[in-house]
Here is the input.
Amino acid sequence: MEWKVVVANTGEGSITIIDFKNDYEIKDISFISLLDKAKGIDICLDNQPIGPWDIALDREKNKIYLANAYNNSISKIDMNKMNIESILAVGKFPSTIKIYDGFIFVLNEDSNSISIVDKKSFNLIGNISVGDKPEDMEIYNFSKKIFIANGNGHSVDIIDLENNKKEKLILSNNPIRLCLEKEYMYILSHSNESFSEHSNISIVRLDNLSIVKSLDIEGVCNNMLKLREKNILFLTSLQDGHLYKVDLKANKIIKKIYLEGMPNKIFWDGNKSLLITNTSKDILTIFNIFNNKVIKNIKVGSEPNGLIIIK
Here is the structure.
């Protein structure tokens, strides 16, 4: 594997850069150290933690954008020079950040909104209201639409960027994660029943928003990843420390792997490996999807969350 991984460490306000082509060489960089050498940046932190939560990569410019959940900002970092170019205030608790068509879209959980930032000027140009407690956002390039999982709203908001229209998919459960592939949307939800120990996966056709499959999963899952062009889903559980492997064709869990701690966000390298952040163990787990075994655990910063892969 000849690439690098950048991990956002929420707990200590830092990023960890892991060089996979040089024997997993690790470099930890604190946000404060980047601020100390930055010039012309005027931001007041008020002694508050920064909380980098999610990352987006601009491959063309080799820059990364951090969504800083605790101080309600996003920052632009030049990966070549390793310095902060700019910081911009957005909504409350920005938790998801995406780059699309010359714009940066930031999902603000506590403001129930999306901040729209012009990537070139790095200026805030608009806000879109969404449902209650939005927890995830995906942008579907094919249809130029944004999909938002309203974690306390029993719904998914769908924003048509091309036609400036909005519609809402009403659900029986509260959605927390979305995956989009071809003509389908995969939705991970939590049951509305009190003290429920179940999660739900719904598969929705994107053309008519009809639910074509609904699968209840035993256990409270918090993140989801679908392997492209395969009938396999992976789920993580902060509650019991497991990674679940789900066969969508067989409609069941086919493997349950104990990873310890609190495995959280899942990423796929497009080949044989999953990368899983573990927020209580402060590690990045490299997992082989073919033999269902952990390849390596790599120590990172405190409370790792989002990451990007630079190939």
